[in-house]
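Form 7-S
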Amino acid sequence: DYADIVEGKFQPNDLIKFLKQAQTLKLSTSFIRNVGQPVNIALATDLPVFARSLHTMLRSLGGGEIDFGGRLKLTPEQLVIESGAANIRILETEGSGRIQKFLDFILKPLTKTENINRRFSSVAGAYQALALEKAINNGVNVDASARKLSSLLGKQIDGTQKINLTADDLKRAAFNMSKATQFGYDPARMPWAASTQLGSLAFQFKSYG
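Output:
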């Protein structure tokens, strides 16, 4: 327990288990904040895109595929995975007792809202990219649309030329929208230590703090 850890009477596995419990308790307080994440999506997208994304999400609850402009056809869950927008799986705690049962109970709604938010933000990101592409190609608010699309894709977009987004572009938009509106992180930018067993625990819920 905590006293053994302070006194140095622990094994590496004991420390890992202790950190898991501490991170789970911290994570359990994030549920209310997590529920409100769709507001961030609404602020980051155009209203028609938000409405379309919400409608599409409701229609695809059974696992149906979404056709993104004929360039990408995936279920919301597949889009999250293939875009890299999926966060590390919500911590599955170990142990028993009243505290453990309480933590397991409070983590269930957080897991559900986190999964929904990831799918929603990813779908919204892909739709937002398509909407900006259409605006640029139709000559509507070209400069502003090009700036938004550049930010969403993480690369410079020339609004003076016709845009033809690829499947990879849509996946990148899904990832960046998720990262901007949810509790995400970019795995490519994580330090080496984060890939270790102890390091992963330290970074796993860093953005939930």
